[in-house]
Q: What sequence folds into this?
DNA sequence: CAGACGTCGAACCGATCGGTACTATCTCCT
DNA sequence: AGGAGATAGTACCGATCGGTTCGACGTCTG
């Protein structure tokens, strides 16, 4: 039966359902680890519907990564906003939030960086560049508000800590200390960058 | 013609040739981005030869990652050995070496971490865990020799910097400063950890 | 009520996938 | 000299790939 009797016809909702299912399964199994047919089976949609909404598998991948980057960025910016006015507290909030993410079951690293690792062109690379740019903007803002001597430098260093902690948490973090380790390092760099007599 | 007239028959060399070609093409195009047939065409070997040496594509992937991890670890340890006795100099050597790698044309991030991003089981994950463990051992050794208050902590933080710099260099490093940024951060953390009145 | 639109389910397409089998031919070792 | 082992080349296997097409049937909008 096409279109089960009684369902409300809502293209936007259908699109969102495909997007949500694809986001989860692409993250868990990798972009090449699942075919379009299986994906359609999981979400309960037909291939025609998927291709009408996204045009191609690459189009779907692009949409998934776009949406995920937007959501993560909003989520992280939200934790900064609710952390109060102190830049140090904001930094703590960022890494505490990351720590919560690392501890979630099914954590597999950053979906966007992972995607860029397996498709070094297509939409994935562009989304990754933009995604890290957003992170950098957020972190540099904290560095500026803290009065760091070289906020751009500190922002880049904080980005390195963030991405490094994510990789380490994914692949080598027996004590689950990556977020805490990175937080301490971030605090130390912040303190050093805001000291009056600053080193290099 | 099977076995071109005049070639020396050397299974080990054949194996190495396949391994070298696979290492390059897997790194550039991703594990799923190239098929066994194309790979055989590039290296000039037959499928039977490949399967006799490696058993399966996954076996080949495992061998590629194993060999690459060994080689990178030796390479990095070598730069530390030739950097002299000062732990600070050794740390500089590590990140300077990384900076040279980042600047190479065709740099695509850490092949092993990339592989683990697209195959979160199989041999890739185990090799990644071991690979980061080797890095951690190297960095913790530097931290110990420097007399850090908490060498294990500093080692883990240095690992985060190393991996973070690699990711950032791959995806968002317009000024190609990632290695230098990480080096400065590493130096700052080392200085802080070796100060007598140390902050947590 | 009528047409436009959305959707499912299935069939189908050519291409490619990882992997196997076999033959002809060459090198190496005794 | 002769057997054993290694190799290229090719054909082949079933499965799956991304993608297209079509008909039946449903909802939505006028």
A:
């Amino acid at each position: 039966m096409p279109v089960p009797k009684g369902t409300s016809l809502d293209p936007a909702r259908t699109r969102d359902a495909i997007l949500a299912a694809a986001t989860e399964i692409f993250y868990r199994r990798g972009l090449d680890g699942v075919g379009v047919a299986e994906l359609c089976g999981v979400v309960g949609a037909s291939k025609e519907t998927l291709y009408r909404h996204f045009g191609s598998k690459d189009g779907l991948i692009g949409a998934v990564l776009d949406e995920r980057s937007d959501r993560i960025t909003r989520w992280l910016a939200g934790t900064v906003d609710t952390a109060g006015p102190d830049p140090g507290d904001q930094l703590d909030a960022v890494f505490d939030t990351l720590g919560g993410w690392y501890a979630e079951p099914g954590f597999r690293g950053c979906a966007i960086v992972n995607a860029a690792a397996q498709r070094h062109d297509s939409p994935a690379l562009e989304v990754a560049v933009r995604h890290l740019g957003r992170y950098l903007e957020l972190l540099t803002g904290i560095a500026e508000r803290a009065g760091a001597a070289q906020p751009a430098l500190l922002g880049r260093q904080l980005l390195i800590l963030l991405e490094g902690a994510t990789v380490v948490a994914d692949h080598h973090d027996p004590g689950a200390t990556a977020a805490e380790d990175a937080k301490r390092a971030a605090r130390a760099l912040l303190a050093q960058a805001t000291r009056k007599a600053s080193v290099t």
